[in-house]
């Protein structure tokens, strides 16, 4: 066993020379063997070795005896010792958590504190190969995602250093033999024998069968775990590269993707791409977000219907409109504005486009198309305003009888729902819509060419603007 652990540490470059190692020691066989192993068989590697014990105060006197046991063992070997007694039951009630989650949170908080106290490089934990098999199976059964299916990582960042698990390639039996060989008499936690916890049920009912089929099953699981992590790393890199071409707009709280480009990505990258967007927008993924949400979103994107909306946890809205899909927080959806444009100059619109106004003493001849609008001040009521759309907006179109709904003009021009919310509309003081910049002119455009005063409006859409 010792040789196997030595090789595992070397292969994974788990311990750098002259390092400070904190060891989490419950007093049970795994962590006691780990402390013993690091103390005796990695002596040349560490500069400081510190054992830490957390008493969760679950089992009264017996819990305290575990603490005293570890303390006593450390004293015998001259190993520095740190401990805390934490009232996990009160913490659990205050935070409405399960016993195990509460214990884990309290334990890791204290371990983190100790890491910083000693500016430690590593926190070594006694998880072994059987624990890994159980973890992976439990996650497959319960459902997980990404690296979750890889179980526990051999090394991962933690506090000012890393968590390391040097025992992942050996079994519980190996550890028990090690304890016997070196006269270690660990403490035994009676709750490990009960079938109350999911992990214990896997340990008692599934693991014996797998070991019977193949006694090296833990090595295959560990190999699987490392491969999953490696593959995920590559797929994540590919996803980032692809998503950079799919995302048309990326802001703190909003992202727009082009649906055709997204759907042309390989399937396995699509799911990851969505996950990437959600990680970015949420920062902290809400626990209520499930794989169903991602399935629904993929369905929305593949659907033949050009528009649709989904409501995700924490007010995240996903709006599909033609070839665009917007991820946005609800409160940001409608950015309404209304402002006056009575002086010559450039007026910047929220979406990055510009409306400029200019006074002329003659009718401009060369100005054509929907990006320009010419006003005869005698036929409209000044001042002019630029505003966002309102429900029921209508305008009389140049060269046509009757009026048309602004909404229908947006639809005819395939303007996405999101863009419609910030698209500028120019009206006069009576509230008559004069111009839908870039899209349509009203019948209010000047047609008399002999006046001596005109206002010319020009619309310059923002090329990078996705809204
Ligand atoms: N109370 C504790 N104080 C300090 N470290 C702990 C404590 N409980 C667990 N750990 C650390 O976390 C590892 C995994 O915890 P887990 O509860 O799965 O332990 P276990 O399988 O019962 O191991 P052990 O035989 O060491 O008790 C342990 O091997 C140990 O390194």
Automatic annotation (TrEMBL):
<dbReference type="GO" id="GO:0032267">
    <property type="term" value="F:tRNA(Ile)-lysidine synthase activity"/>
</dbReference>
<dbReference type="GO" id="GO:0005524">
    <property type="term" value="F:ATP binding"/>
</dbReference>
<feature type="binding site">
    <location>
        <begin position="26"/>
        <end position="31"/>
    </location>
    <ligand>
        <name>ATP</name>
    </ligand>
</feature>
<keyword id="KW-0963">Cytoplasm</keyword>
<dbReference type="InterPro" id="IPR012094">
    <property type="entry name" value="tRNA_Ile_lys_synt"/>
</dbReference>
<dbReference type="GO" id="GO:0005737">
    <property type="term" value="C:cytoplasm"/>
</dbReference>
<dbReference type="InterPro" id="IPR015262">
    <property type="entry name" value="tRNA_Ile_lys_synt_subst-bd"/>
</dbReference>
<keyword id="KW-0436">Ligase</keyword>
<dbReference type="InterPro" id="IPR014729">
    <property type="entry name" value="Rossmann-like_a/b/a_fold"/>
</dbReference>
<keyword id="KW-0067">ATP-binding</keyword>
<feature type="domain" description="Lysidine-tRNA(Ile) synthetase C-terminal">
    <location>
        <begin position="384"/>
        <end position="457"/>
    </location>
</feature>
<dbReference type="InterPro" id="IPR012796">
    <property type="entry name" value="Lysidine-tRNA-synth_C"/>
</dbReference>
<comment type="similarity">
    <text>Belongs to the tRNA(Ile)-lysidine synthase family.</text>
</comment>
<comment type="function">
    <text>Ligates lysine onto the cytidine present at position 34 of the AUA codon-specific tRNA(Ile) that contains the anticodon CAU, in an ATP-dependent manner. Cytidine is converted to lysidine, thus changing the amino acid specificity of the tRNA from methionine to isoleucine.</text>
</comment>
<keyword id="KW-0819">tRNA processing</keyword>
<dbReference type="Pfam" id="PF11734">
    <property type="entry name" value="TilS_C"/>
</dbReference>
<keyword id="KW-0547">Nucleotide-binding</keyword>
<dbReference type="Pfam" id="PF09179">
    <property type="entry name" value="TilS"/>
</dbReference>
<dbReference type="InterPro" id="IPR012795">
    <property type="entry name" value="tRNA_Ile_lys_synt_N"/>
</dbReference>
<protein>
    <recommendedName>
        <fullName>tRNA(Ile)-lysidine synthase</fullName>
        <ecNumber>6.3.4.19</ecNumber>
    </recommendedName>
</protein>
<dbReference type="GO" id="GO:0006400">
    <property type="term" value="P:tRNA modification"/>
</dbReference>
<dbReference type="Pfam" id="PF01171">
    <property type="entry name" value="ATP_bind_3"/>
</dbReference>
<dbReference type="InterPro" id="IPR011063">
    <property type="entry name" value="TilS/TtcA_N"/>
</dbReference>
